[in-house]
UniProtKB/TrEMBL annotation, chains A, B:
GO terms for cellular component: cytoplasm. Gene3D superfamilies: 3.10.20.580, Metallo-hydrolase/oxidoreductase, Ribonuclease Z/Hydroxyacylglutathione hydrolase-like. Its EC number is 3.1.-.-. This is Ribonuclease J. The keyword Metal-binding applies. Homodimer, may be a subunit of the RNA degradosome. Its cofactor is Ca(2+); Zn(2+).
Length: 547, 547
């Protein structure tokens, strides 16, 4: 039995792990991640499917632990290529279904499970265990394999007073521990954090205080998928007699799904369509919105910029940014907060106000899980190396031998046999970038090119050349893009023309008519000039026009 | 008397404020800031000098509060245009001097002052008051003007047990308060933080614990200008019998300046040049380095990537990242930490270890200053709006009337007359981008162009045209850069050729020989095709070659 991590190790996002034995492969999660600042123009990032393609016939199905994008976002792309059943809880599948429809996948084989269920798939025995997280209906997955029992935590925290549903099923973990767990694949996201993450319920206290004193509008931004958080807003609205307006595409959709599937008790009489929000007095409404990460096009950012079609915020209003900025989003979030404050709104955000708690287990929770499961091996997943490493340190402090803790990277498989783990040779892994619906298979080259375009600029040289003699006909045209100083640039254009002319005179003397050689010579000489004069290394594009 | 903020309000960085009365203008600080993710290829950002150019003859001198880049970095650019005296403390001028030399400014009129000094400049009485900050020799500036006494805090914290020098001169602030302060321009950087920032000395305890237990190399990354922090490393090295190696261009330079000027007691016998670091046993050396912000080219990043010319770090070594990531740098810092950990080094960083304290006053310190100075007006400076706003709230809690707290933006002057403040009309302010030594005066257009190049890509069309008839000679060439999917792109190239051919056939029928009209038609039709097929809006560059 082998476990092959294909995403989510050494990184945050695009979680995907294959479990393989003679009887087949089961895939745990199929997540995406978001582009970082080194991926201009990219919409989203997918795990590499190469390994799955190479073992196409073995893939028996996909198991989703919960409905967050970093666990389900790659599914539409995966189902284009692989026609296999998908297992998930009611809410998870409810969130997945419209995404599949958007991608034109009409009849995915979606199979609903619930915590406590046991199923067979591809020769594995699957069991789903209730865990708490920042979305309802999240599960851990235990797999009974030929080599033994292994457990995937999914994303989890231990919330003993959850907003809805049950506390994490620690009793079942204890029973699995009694049965004997060969390997545990545990969420490492918060493993740098000491202590115990507070219950989601503490946010409720803050919300109630705010609703108590608010006289104008209340606007709450959170992740659209954070149904618990949204439900807390709805409950506060009920307690304080406010209606609930909803804006932001994904917030509107998720509220609809949660209501339809019974995860949100928001009667129609309380629901206000975004077009009708201005008809309700400010003191009688709370508005749910997207944009807690400062994303430039999200509803809250548009409200902050005064560019939302219907909703304004100003003096007397209270805006709650009910999320923590994901690393990389700090500046965007700060811009949004500044703009809202300039409009006169009061803005509440972490860590200054207790308007958010994490959905991932901290160190003491990790210790509780390790003490219940008593796994022989720990593989820290879902996290950058520093988080995997801290998870490891925590496990060592619990007495798990260091050699039984495997910090793996994407593409580094482990084989379990006779109760022992053994590392195998690396398989294809990595990332694929999605740009305007197309999946790039030369991501690195394209991203380097885009960065060079934006940081170094571009010089285009058009030379008209006698195709017989290789002689230059008139001065070449030089056009630049992305260069800073137009005055310096003008001088530079003249010098570039002179340089290219000289280059082509030289090649004409040698009767060079091989255009690739001409282009190479132009590139070399012009790059020399530009680097000397501007310290820049623009992309140089010589165009030879045959006359 | 007018105060004209030209940088540092509503933002972090490029602090610069003009104070003006009939007798002349004095400029407080001349700082730069660093580019954000929306400024690809930019080296640094300067304040707008337009206002100063318009009042060229009035400018009598520049006062520097301390030697950090966000307070002195624009000076070389300013002194190119304005030949005025510059006042600063010994260390501040010591740090400024080599920067001026780099820019070819040999004989700047630098005038050394020290805390406690009083001077006359441009009809103002200047007084310098000792403050604590993350660099020695920092001062606040009190100006006696025609309209009354005003105080500029500079960057400050109250450190009652500083590493070197004296605690902030609270007695002098009390005396100024007795005299009567018309307006106080106070550092807002940390005004969101409750309480009191700990003394720099607490870092010493952590350092001593680390030096006590370390058996391999110790590597400490900090801001090169954080002479206090560097001195704490030097003192720990002395106490534990380690030599001090230095790497990173600015760290080497600043250590040299600090030693020469008497701000660092590091005897030559303890100093190890970076070329000789490998000659010293790991257990006998501590290495000071740049790169605490994860800057890709800095020494620590190169060590982490295994690309430093001489220095390696691995198992048994301890790396201390002795700084807090500036917003926007979180991912870079995280990358560095991950890479160092993967090499086996132990890495200590905030908030997990107490290896850094801030250099900016928190709320209780701000309250102490307000209670001593008792200013009639408060102008919160050095900070984004959210920080200015919190500074305001703190002041209100101290009893300063709300209408006497002025949250200004860059370019919003205030006039003081008869003890009253009055807002004036906005003046030119903003930012100028420096790219490879050139200052851009069309920043917005260039940045939009660069972003479009990197996010949307570029399409170049070369059409050979009969200059008489406007007829197309052969199919046009279409070349793209920055597009993702080469396969889709090939199809796209064919379709683009067809579209452009059709466009030019149409214009030839109408005998269009106005090339700008041709280009416009090509742009329009091609943009339509590309937007429909790819949802992208690349830069389209039609090149007409006359034959």
């Amino acid at each position: 039995m082998q476990v092959i991590p294909l995403g989510g190790l050494g990184e945050i996002g695009k979680n995907m792990t294959a479990v393989r034995q003679e009887s087949g492969i089961v895939l745990i999660d199929a997540g995406m991640s978001f582009p970082d600042e080194e991926m201009p123009g990219i919409d989203l990032v997918l795990p590499d499917f190469s390994y799955l393609r190479e073992h196409r016939d073995e893939l028996k199905g996909i198991v989703l632990t919960h409905g967050h994008e970093d666990h389900v976002g790659a599914l539409p792309y995966l189902l284009r290529e692989f026609n296999v059943p998908v297992y998930g809880t009611k809410l998870t599948l409810g969130l997945v279904r419209p995404k599949l429809a958007e991608h034109g996948i009409k009849k995915g084989d979606l199979r609903e499970i619930k915590a406590g269920d046991r199923q067979k798939l591809g020769g594995f025995g699957m069991e789903f265990i209730n865990v708490n997280h920042s979305i309802p209906d999240a599960v851990a997955v235990a797999l009974r394999t030929n080599a033994g029992l292994i457990v995937f935590s999914g994303d989890y925290k231990i919330d003993l007073t959850p907003i809805e549903g049950e506390p994490m099923d620690l009793n079942r973990y204890a029973a699995l521990g009694q049965e004997g767990v060969l390997a545990y694949f545990g969420d490492s996201t918060n493993s740098e954090r000491p202590g115990f993450v507070p219950s989601e319920r503490v946010v409720n206290e803050t919300f109630n205080q705010v609703f108590e004193r608010a006289t104008g509008r209340i606007i709450v931004a959170s992740f659209a998928s954070h149904i618990h958080r949204v439900n807390q807003v709805v409950e506060a609205a009920k307690a304080h007699g406010r209606l609930v307006g909803v804006t932001g595409r994904s917030m509107i959709r998720n509220v609809q799904i949660a209501r339809e599937l019974g995860y949100m008790d928001l009667p129609q009489s309380m629901y206000v369509d975004q077009r009708d929000i201005n008809k309700v007095p400010d003191s009688d409404i709370v508005i749910l919105t997207t944009g807690s990460q400062g994303e430039p096009m999200a509803a809250l950012s548009r409200i902050a910029a005064g560019q939302h079609r219907t909703i304004e915020a100003g003096a007397g209003d209270i805006v709650i940014v009910s999320a923590h900025p994901i690393p990389g989003n700090e500046r965007g979030v700060s811009r949004t907060i500044n703009s809202l404050m300039k409009r006169g709104a009061e803005v509440l955000y972490t860590p200054l106000s207790r308007v958010h708690v994490s959905g991932h287990a901290a160190q003491e929770e990790q210790k509780i899980v390790l003490s219940l499961l008593k796994p022989k091996y720990l593989v820290p997943v879902h996290g950058e190396y520093r988080m995997q490493k801290h998870h490891k340190d925590t496990a060592i402090s619990m007495g798990i031998p260091e050699e039984n803790i495997l910090i793996l990277e994407n593409g580094e498989p482990v084989e379990f046999e006779g109760g022992e783990a053994r590392r195998l040779e690396t398989v294809s892994s990595g990332m694929f970038l999605v740009d305007a619906g197309s999946v790039a298979d030369n991501s690195d080259a394209i991203m380097r090119e885009r960065q060079q375009l934006s940081e170094e600029g571009m010089f285009i040289v058009v030379a008209r050349i006698n195709s017989k003699s290789g002689e230059l006909l008139g001065p070449p045209d030089v056009i630049s893009r992305g260069f800073v100083d137009p005055q310096a640039q003008n001088g530079l254009v003249d010098e570039s023309v002179a340089t290219v002319t000289k280059t082509l005179e030289r090649t004409a003397q040698r009767h060079v008519t091989d255009w690739s050689e001409l282009k190479k010579a132009i590139r070399k000489d012009l790059a020399g000039l530009l680097s000397e004069k501007t310290r820049k290394r623009p992309i140089i594009l010589p165009l030879i026009v045959e006359v």
